[in-house]
Design goal:
The protein is α/β, with parallel strands linked by helices. It is built from 10 helices and 16 strands. It folds into 2 domains: 126 residues, Udp-n-acetylmuramoylalanyl-d-glutamate--2,6- Diaminopimelate Ligase, Chain: A, domain 1, CATH 3.40.1390; 161 residues, Rossmann fold (3-Layer(aba) Sandwich), CATH 3.40.50.300.
Length: 307
């Protein structure tokens, strides 16, 4: 999976200095950049040629200091590699020799107005998200008290109904039924496919547009996924966790997420349970664990009895 130089330029608002036939090829597959100062100095033993090439003030000044014959030799070797594109920062003019070689080798050249470091940070952020590994999961994703909470379970178990109750309580919907997940570093983010964005399917009623009914404040486009709650039909005799000391996880794209299994049966308020789960997760993230506190109190109590 990769993106094309044309898509990169469009996303970052770059000016086109020179087009090329291969600018539509999805040739960029790394979330990083290369500043080719060492290559212009003649060192090619380590050269990340497969990355977008960013030329800043330092590289430009060095190119301008080279004698014509040395410049020609360095550019000849530089363009012998399969370079996806060249980006010139700080609104600087492209040297005629560089532009000529880029056109001869079918390499697109773009211009950026920002300072090199600022542009590089913005470009790497975009590439990290655009090239992030992705996966689609069946479930509902909500923002509950600032916690990215994904609700999973078999069809008909009540995920959408639970989401609707949470929305009525003031929480926000990210997506219903289909969750598009991307991994940036060791963090997972979820969002809705554009086709079903803002919709909830309720059996017996049909498709409901959450934004139109509850307002823009009832939805959020994207959120980090912190916790997974799996709803399942109550099975008599099954040993469900009653203390909260069983650490379970769900692996998505190589990232383990905390998993809570919640049995469903008539009379249980799922939305309230989900809200409590979100609050409890936040407490644990801040260092407070109710199970540990209970264990401490018991130890203290029995310690007094043995005195």
């Amino acid at each position: 999976m990769g993106i094309s130089p044309h898509k990169l330029a469009a996303a970052l608002g770059l000016r086109t200095i020179s087009t090329a036939g291969k600018e539509m090829e999805e040739s960029i597959d790394q979330a990083d950049l290369c500043r080719p100062g060492l290559q212009f100095a003649g060192y090619f033993d380590v050269f990340a040629f497969e990355r977008p090439q960013v030329i800043g003030k330092t590289e430009m000044a060095y190119l301008g200091s080279l004698p014509p014959n040395v410049l020609d030799e360095r550019l000849t070797r530089y363009f012998s590699y399969h370079i996806p594109c060249i980006i010139i920062a700080r609104s600087m003019q492209c040297p005629p020799a560089l532009l000529e070689r880029a056109q001869e080798n079918d390499v697109p050249v773009y211009g950026a107005d920002e300072e090199t470091s600022i542009f590089s940070a913005k470009a790497i952020t975009f590439l990290s998200e655009a090239l992030a590994p992705r996966q689609t999961c069946h479930g509902v994703l909500m923002d509950v008290y600032g916690v990215g909470l994904m609700i999973t379970g078999e069809s008909g178990v009540g995920k959408s109904e639970c989401a609707l109750e949470l929305i009525k309580h003031g929480h926000q919907l990210v997506t219903d039924d289909v969750v598009d997940i991307s991994r940036v570093g060791r963090t997972l983010y979820g969002e809705s496919p554009e086709m079903v964005r803002d919709f909830i399917e309720l059996r017996g009623i049909g498709i409901v547009d959450v934004k139109e009914i509850f307002g823009i404040g009832a939805i959020v486009r994207r959120i980090r996924i912190d916790l997974v709650i799996n709803l399942e039909t109550w099975h008599e005799g099954k040993d469900y966790d009653r203390l909260g000391n069983r650490e379970r996880t769900m692996d998505i794209l190589g990232v383990p997420l905390p998993l809570i299994e919640v049995p469903v049966r008539p009379g249980r308020s799922l939305s309230t349970i989900v809200e409590i789960a979100a609050r409890n997760w936040r407490l644990k993230a801040e260092g407070y664990d109710a199970v540990v506190e209970l264990d401490r109190r018991l130890a203290q109590h029995y310690g007094r009895m043995n005195e």
